[in-house]
């Protein structure tokens, strides 16, 4: 007996695939009768859709990792029936992201409606690819119905076709048959297919018919033992089917008296299990809950299933959760950790990690666990290396995460090289290349950190233990010390290696190289004392005497420096000299220093006015400036003593990051949130245009120390408000043109200090007034400035001519 081609094996009436409609929008449909107005409207819609497609294409070409843009792009391409671009877009998106079940269902139906009987295998591959991303009851039902309708061997009930469908149904049961509310669709479809096989058997073949009847009965019994919705209806259906076979199980009642004891006990347990889960199903199906609340309900459901102890059911609810929240890294980590503990090894674990890393490629922990799972499963080196290389192409939040990946890779190589269970031969060069790659990549970003030091210590150790290369181990340390020679711990690690190897001479040579270096804190003293301790334990008396003669002067020097630092008062910030209240008024008013102090005060005021592009204004404390008549401006002193204004904050650019290419919409709070994972933000200054007051797209961010600053610089070129911002250490002195005051020759060419005439270097304020009058001397406050009477031309005075008094000037003018 042949089943009709229109027969639907698995019910799809309650599918919740909103985007996958029965009508295929990718195939041009016949246009319904319409008026001219509706035609114009359709034309406008098509033009708008084409314009939106072009915009999305441009956006995806610049930012390919945009999930929502791809979804919208595919939706518009289906609407316009652009089949060529539609296939390309789906393939491109699938290469980057795992697609949702609804997207796979759309894709498979679109292609199935266009495919011929010769292309059945291509459609099958689409369904299989969909299952590799997420498990879905609706996708499985659609796949099974497609096979029944399109595969002649299946709907012809050949032995190959029957075997193929049975294999598919047995795969579908653990994947979708335990879904509490929708799993019945898989079981009912399986039973319907087997009933079709029974109807196709010749009535004369009684033995074969009885085998098939028993097969259907077995499916009923398995179905009744699974906690699913509407099990009572399934029981009634089973009794009715048994009645057709001549067995009366009292179809009019719900009791199980006439059912076999094993089936009755299994069904009773299933009914109880469903009643325990019914409220959990209601909670995760509640559409009024927010995403956060619904996610928590899923986690409660998962916790409940774990207490039941059935791994199959736990895995089923996990699959439902990740299909609902595919980009939740916490959920994927929780799922994969459970699989590691429960299954330990197997393709199910590695497949789960593959899906997890595609869904959340930014989560380093998933990549590291993926590598470990492959190692546990004895995966070949080629497969492990491919996953490792793929992980390095992802973007993580810190360089510590990249370091963890490199170390995980090295750990795996080391274990497999030393293991006798691995048949594959691995060369030590793989470890050396991995270490070198890690050092080259991380050194610019993690220089002088303990983490990078431990990496190189590990590397040197493996050069000795596995590589058997002492020169290679020394090369590791020498290379590291060239860039991080200021780390005392690095020198100690290198020295310890030589000491443990018994190389006293080489260890002594290292002490001689580093004992004069400057280290943080008491490190310089510690290394000197360490050398003496080393000679006491490993050297002879002559070696100790030599070390003592070298170290003691160094220790005395360090002690003297420390005493000087402790006794020296803290200097005020650059540009803000404190007023020296110790000077007497008599000393302040020395007439010979009047003009010189004025010039110095002006230079000092100009210097102190702006520190790191921040105008400290009138609140800054400036030196007491003398007036031209020789009187000190004591009012400034009195005012400062009475009001004692707060000192402005001075920015020294020691731990400051300079941000550029910022969006004009960025506020201080946005920048603080951007660096929240870095921490250590002290203050933020966004620069504005002086005229308009609008943001310039530039900012300074001060950090509490260099460690936080280095972590902030690591976020260089990250997307922030739709733009890739540039982050660098602030260095305002760099690129600033150096010049000497009054060193310009008037032609635009600046002069070096050595090129400036000696006279110009000591030029006073009076000399700067012009060539006609040269003012010198002590009492110049009453000397007229550069004023000329009509028709009078004053010859240039000689350098030795004394300044004229008021009376002399008056007589000279009268004579003239």
From TrEMBL:
<protein>
    <submittedName>
        <fullName>Squamous cell carcinoma antigen recognized by T-cells 3-like</fullName>
    </submittedName>
</protein>
<keyword id="KW-0539">Nucleus</keyword>
<feature type="compositionally biased region" description="Acidic residues">
    <location>
        <begin position="37"/>
        <end position="48"/>
    </location>
</feature>
<feature type="compositionally biased region" description="Basic and acidic residues">
    <location>
        <begin position="628"/>
        <end position="645"/>
    </location>
</feature>
<keyword id="KW-0677">Repeat</keyword>
<dbReference type="InterPro" id="IPR012677">
    <property type="entry name" value="Nucleotide-bd_a/b_plait_sf"/>
</dbReference>
<feature type="region of interest" description="Disordered">
    <location>
        <begin position="787"/>
        <end position="816"/>
    </location>
</feature>
<feature type="region of interest" description="Disordered">
    <location>
        <begin position="566"/>
        <end position="646"/>
    </location>
</feature>
<keyword id="KW-0694">RNA-binding</keyword>
<keyword id="KW-0507">mRNA processing</keyword>
<feature type="compositionally biased region" description="Basic and acidic residues">
    <location>
        <begin position="576"/>
        <end position="585"/>
    </location>
</feature>
<feature type="region of interest" description="Disordered">
    <location>
        <begin position="1"/>
        <end position="48"/>
    </location>
</feature>
<keyword id="KW-0508">mRNA splicing</keyword>
<feature type="compositionally biased region" description="Basic and acidic residues">
    <location>
        <begin position="758"/>
        <end position="772"/>
    </location>
</feature>
<feature type="region of interest" description="Disordered">
    <location>
        <begin position="731"/>
        <end position="772"/>
    </location>
</feature>
<dbReference type="Pfam" id="PF05843">
    <property type="entry name" value="Suf"/>
</dbReference>
<dbReference type="InterPro" id="IPR011990">
    <property type="entry name" value="TPR-like_helical_dom_sf"/>
</dbReference>
<dbReference type="Pfam" id="PF00076">
    <property type="entry name" value="RRM_1"/>
</dbReference>
<dbReference type="InterPro" id="IPR008847">
    <property type="entry name" value="Suf"/>
</dbReference>
<feature type="domain" description="RRM">
    <location>
        <begin position="655"/>
        <end position="732"/>
    </location>
</feature>
<dbReference type="InterPro" id="IPR003107">
    <property type="entry name" value="HAT"/>
</dbReference>
<dbReference type="InterPro" id="IPR035979">
    <property type="entry name" value="RBD_domain_sf"/>
</dbReference>
<dbReference type="InterPro" id="IPR000504">
    <property type="entry name" value="RRM_dom"/>
</dbReference>
<feature type="compositionally biased region" description="Polar residues">
    <location>
        <begin position="618"/>
        <end position="627"/>
    </location>
</feature>
<feature type="compositionally biased region" description="Basic and acidic residues">
    <location>
        <begin position="798"/>
        <end position="810"/>
    </location>
</feature>
């Amino acid at each position: 007996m042949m089943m009709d081609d229109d027969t639907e094996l698995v019910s799809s009436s309650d599918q919740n695939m909103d985007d996958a409609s029965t009508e295929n929008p990718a195939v041009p449909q016949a246009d319904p009768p319409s008026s001219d107005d509706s035609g114009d409207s359709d034309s406008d819609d098509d033009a708008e859709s084409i314009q939106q497609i072009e915009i999305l294409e441009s956006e995806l070409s610049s930012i390919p990792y945009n999930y929502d843009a791809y979804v919208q792009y595919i939706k518009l391409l289906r609407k316009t029936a652009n089949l060529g671009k539609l296939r390309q877009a789906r393939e491109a998106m699938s290469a980057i992201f795992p697609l949702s079940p609804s997207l796979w269902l759309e894709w498979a139906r679109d292609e199935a409606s266009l495919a011929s009987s010769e292309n059945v295998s291509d459609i099958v591959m689409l369904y299989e690819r969909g299952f590799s991303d997420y498990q879905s009851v609706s996708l499985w039902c659609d796949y099974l119905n497609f096979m029944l309708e399109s595969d002649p061997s299946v709907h012809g009930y050949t032995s190959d076709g029957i075997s193929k469908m049975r294999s598919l149904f047995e795969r579908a049961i653990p994947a979708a048959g335990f879904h509490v509310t929708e799993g019945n669709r898989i079981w009912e479809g399986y039973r319907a297919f087997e009933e079709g096989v029974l109807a196709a058997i010749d009535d004369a073949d009684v033995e074969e018919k009885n085998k098939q009847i028993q097969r259907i009965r077995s499916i009923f019994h398995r179905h009744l033992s699974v906690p699913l919705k509407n099990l009572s209806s399934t029981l009634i259906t089973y009794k009715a089917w048994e009645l057709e076979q001549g067995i009366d199980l009292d179809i009019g009642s719900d009791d199980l008296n006439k059912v076999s004891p094993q089936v009755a006990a299994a069904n009773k347990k299933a009914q109880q299990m469903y009643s325990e889960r019914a409220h959990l199903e209601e909670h995760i199906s509640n559409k009024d809950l927010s995403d956060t609340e619904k996610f928590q309900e899923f986690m409660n459901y998962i916790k409940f299933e774990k207490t039941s102890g059935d791994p199959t059911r736990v895995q089923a609810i996990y699959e439902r959760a990740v299909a609902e929240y595919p980009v939740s890294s916490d959920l994927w980590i929780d799922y994969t950790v459970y699989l590691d503990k429960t299954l330990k090894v197997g393709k199910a674990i590695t497949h789960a990690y593959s899906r997890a890393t595609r869904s959340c490629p930014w989560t380093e922990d998933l990549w590291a666990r993926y590598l470990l799972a492959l190692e546990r499963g004895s995966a070949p080196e080629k497969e492990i290396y491919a996953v490792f290389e793929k992980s390095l192409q992802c973007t993580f939040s810190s360089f510590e995460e990249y370091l963890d990946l490199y170390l995980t890779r090295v750990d795996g190589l080391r274990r497999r090289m030393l293991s006798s269970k691995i048949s594959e031969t691995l060369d030590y060069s793989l470890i050396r290349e991995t270490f070198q790659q890690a050092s080259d990549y991380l050194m610019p970003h993690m220089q002088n950190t303990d983490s990078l030091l431990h990496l190189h210590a590990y590397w040197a150790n493996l050069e000795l233990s596995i590589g058997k290369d002492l020169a290679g181990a020394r090369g590791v340390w020498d290379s590291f010390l060239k860039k991080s020679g200021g780390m005392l711990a690095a020198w100690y690690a290198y020295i310890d290696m030589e000491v443990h190897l018994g190389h006293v001479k080489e260890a002594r040579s290292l002490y001689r190289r580093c004992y004069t270096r400057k280290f943080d804190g008491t490190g310089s003293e510690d290394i000197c004392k360490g050398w003496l301790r080393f000679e006491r334990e490993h050297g002879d008396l002559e070696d100790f005497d030599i070390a003592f003669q070298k170290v003691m002067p160094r220790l005395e020097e360090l002690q003297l420096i420390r005493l000087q630092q402790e006794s020296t008062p803290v200097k005020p910030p650059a540009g803000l000299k404190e007023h020296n209240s110790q000077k007497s008024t008599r000393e302040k008013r020395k007439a010979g220093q009047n003009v010189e102090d004025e010039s110095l005060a002006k230079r000092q005021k100009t210097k102190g006015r702006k520190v790191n592009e921040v105008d400290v204004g009138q609140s800054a404390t400036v030196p007491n400036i003398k007036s031209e008549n020789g009187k000190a401006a004591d009012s400034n002193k009195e005012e400062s003593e009475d009001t004692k204004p707060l000192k402005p904050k001075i920015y020294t650019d020691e731990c400051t990051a300079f941000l550029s290419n910022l969006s004009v919409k960025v506020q201080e709070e946005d920048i603080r949130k951007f660096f929240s994972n870095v921490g250590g933000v002290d203050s933020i200054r966004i620069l504005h245009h002086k005229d308009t007051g609008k943001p310039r797209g530039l900012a300074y961010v001060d950090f509490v120390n260099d460690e936080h600053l280095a972590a902030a610089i690591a976020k260089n070129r990250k997307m922030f408000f739709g733009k890739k911002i540039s982050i660098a250490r602030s260095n305002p002195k760099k690129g600033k043109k150096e010049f000497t005051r009054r060193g310009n020759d008037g032609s635009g060419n600046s002069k070096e200090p050595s090129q400036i005439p000696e006279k110009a270097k000591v030029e006073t304020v009076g000399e700067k007034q012009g060539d006609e009058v040269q003012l010198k001397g002590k009492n110049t406050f009453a000397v007229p400035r550069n004023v000329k009477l009509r028709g009078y031309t004053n010859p240039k005075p000689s350098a030795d001519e004394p300044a004229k008094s008021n009376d002399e000037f008056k007589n000279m003018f009268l004579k003239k």
